[in-house]
Amino acid sequence: MRRVTIAVLTTLITFALFLFPPQVSSTYVSKYWAVIVCGSSEFQPDPERLYNVLMDSYNFDGILYLSVNTSNPNVNLETTHANLKYALKDWLNQSTADDLIFIFIETHGGGYRRNTPECYGDELKPAFFPDTEDSGWAEIDSDEGFEFTEAHIQEDVNGDGEISDTTWVGTDEYLSLDPASGTETVWDDEVRYWLSCLQYRRLITFIGACRAPSNKTEACFSGGFIDDLSAPRRIIITSSNETYWSWYERETGQHYFGREFINALDPTNSAWELASNLVDEDGATSILEAYFYAYNHDMARKYVRTEAGTVPDPFIEKYTPYLAKLMDESPWFDDGGNFLPTFKNGTDVGDGDFQDGYLARCTWLAKERYSSCVEDVNDDYRVDLTDVFLAARNYGCFFPGNWDSQCSLVDINEDNEIDLKDYMAIALMFGWTA
Q1: What gap in Å lies between CA 37 and CA 300, rounded to an integer?
Q2: 2-19 helix and 385-393 helix, angle to the nearest 10 degrees
Q3: What angle do CA 257, 259, 264 make, to 5 degrees?
Q4: Together in a domain, 254 and 381
Q5: Is 301 found in the same domain as 198?
Q6: 361 DSSP 8-state letter
Q7: Is residue 160 part of a domain?
Q8: How far is CA 248 from CA 11, 51, 89, 108, 242, in A?
């Protein structure tokens, strides 16, 4: 079937070339937009540094910087619920279907519940487990799907008087903002709705929600946002999975994972060159390479921390068998539009989800602009046999059924289906060069 598809497409391209000469253009029409969010006073170094990197090394058409520190002359708005809604839903609405949007958020957050004394013992809770302020909202028939059982979170969610290991629930996650007026909560469903109003060619969302070693009420679980935000043409990077914490260095205010991610995006940093060679050698660091670099250089990723030191794996196996394989900080990545990784299919850090990566591999901040020709599937400034092959490889895919990160590039008319309309669009532009 695949060979027949390629043969048919080759015939269509030959026919198109006979009727229409190759198209030539050198116009770059895409624009870059960024929203940078510092949600708590502890986290000012990373967002501030990223702002300077984007201003000094890139050509963004607009950057909106939200921070709790409004005395900073670079800051446009205070980080409040209302202002974050304005930034994501209204300000970014000036983007078009040709554009790239980059959202970077560092703040506190919450999600997966651990109601602990009965489950873990009072003597263990103060040293290792967070208090209930970390809790998201667990519910039956959740839009999150089946994520955990009542036994995992030790809560009678359906109110039947039992904490069951067969009653599955979903948990909503949130961002915790801390403006001068007091803490404000932004739920994952709100962010999903705000972003649904936008047009873009690529949407990159980085969520780093952190926990300080000396404060039990600061949490994250930012990986849970993937369930809500995953969609075609989106890349989502989170500093943790959906059941554990991530960390920042209290002395510097820098997030262990976020700091390395910014290093990889900074052309003046030695990490830039190292990152740019992780996948290919095209002279630029793609978003996929930046993620790989940050993941490999994240000092907090391989540690299970308490105030007393490292907790051995047998402890985790005994008290939390569902989380036995997890480390304390486990960054997640998704660009397949298939709502994974998630514990719904037992994966972590993308294990078992081989559909991720291609979209982020073809997404960058360093190159001049994206190709003005959407039929240039891999954005190498020409429509050639590589684009033909990618179209043939994904024939018949539809969202969300068997969608992957390549489909987001091949879906020329953005109807969430790869069919002859997309093939013909590529055929008519075959031979185009920038």
Answers
A1: 22
A2: 140
A3: 95
A4: no
A5: yes
A6: H
A7: no
A8: 56, 19, 29, 10, 17
Statement to judge: residues 131 and 260 lie in one domain: yes
| 389 plus 346 within the same structural domain | no
Per-residue pLDDT of the chain (434 residues; tens, 9 = 90+): 555 555 665 565 555 555 555 554 445 568 999 999 999 888 899 999 999 999 999 989 999 999 999 999 999 999 999 999 999 999 999 999 889 999 999 998 888 755 433 333 333 333 333 344 456 777 777 777 777 777 777 778 888 989 888 888 888 888 888 866 667 888 898 999 999 989 999 999 999 977 654 444 455 788 889 888 999 999 999 998 887 778 777 778 888 899 999 999 999 999 999 999 888 877 789 999 999 999 888 877 765 444 444 444 444 444 443 343 344 678 888 888 776 665 555 455 444 444 578 899 889 886 666 777 888 888 888 888 888 888 888 889 988 888 888 888 899 988 999 998 888 888 888 888 87
Task: Identify the domain containing residue 58 by its residue range.
Answer: 32-136+173-361
Is the distance from CB of 169 to CB of 148 less than 8 angstroms? yes
Q: Alpha-carbon distance 410 to 388, whole Å? A: 9
Does residue 92 sit in the same domain as residue 10?
no
Q: How many domains does the chain have?
A: 2
Burial of 203 (0-12, 13-18, 19+ CB in 10 A): buried
**Tokens representing residue 111 in the block:** 């999600």
Residue with tokens 């809770």: 125
- What residues are paired with 235 via a beta bridge? 204
- 39 and 23 within one domain: no
CATH of the domain at 284: 3.40.50
Among candidates 411, 402, 404, 353, which has minimal Cα distance to 377? 411
Residues 291 and 316 in one domain: yes
Eight-class DSSP state of 211: B
